[in-house]
Amino acid sequence: MKVRVILFAIHREKLGQGQVELELPFGATVADLLDGMTNRFPEFVNLKDGLMVAVNTEYVDSQAVLNNDDEVALIPPVSGGNDDRYKDN
Question: What's the pTM?
């Protein structure tokens, strides 16, 4: 089956593209997809920490089963900036 992987922020930058199509066996899980991403892009191994995954716009865990033509968004952790208004004086 084929799934479309949407990449954001650091993932898009490091992998040089905004989306990837992956071929996976039927019954594959999100964990299998992440393994497939690492096989295809070895540098992805360093990008998996703190990753959130959404399948067809719904957040899922690594055991979620994927279906043909699913859209999988890999959402990297978000860090905030420095806002002095919230510092204790």
Answer: 0.83
